[in-house]
Amino acid sequence: MDDDFTITRDIYPMPAFLTLTVSDLERSVRWYTEGLDFVELARMPQLVHLRRFRNQDILLFPPHPGRPGPDAGAGWSFSLQGGPGLPTLAQRLAAHAPDASAGLQRMPWNVDELRCTDPDGYAIVFTERVPEDEMDQAFSAAVLASLTVDIL
Fold first, then answer.
1. Which of 21, 32, 48, 59 meets the CB 3.0–4.6 Å disulfide criterion with 38?
2. Confidence of residue 1 (pLDDT cuts 50, 70, 90)
């Protein structure tokens, strides 16, 4: 399996990560680890660092004076390319939190999405490119025709 799709406990500069203030730290840790296959990478005072695959990191903070509280509706999108895939993740989430997602959805822009909502109302979206033989070729052609820069 590609190194980017194995859970690693390596410490590296994270190009992007999500920080969430959650109302119940332990409940959120369970939700992300049991429902979305994250691992608890590190636990420090007032912070839990979760990771799924490389560059899929979430920092969870409990409520704290001066730090904004949970912001329902705020969200983040993780793009998957390979690995175990969204069907497996959707099944795992459905088993753990059946009301957290409507399941996989095929989007017109040639990706499958798994949109889910955590216990504090944060929206987390996982996307994965559809297989080449299942792509909407008309959409792909329209995108290429709309480009203002020659990429071919």
1. 32
2. very low
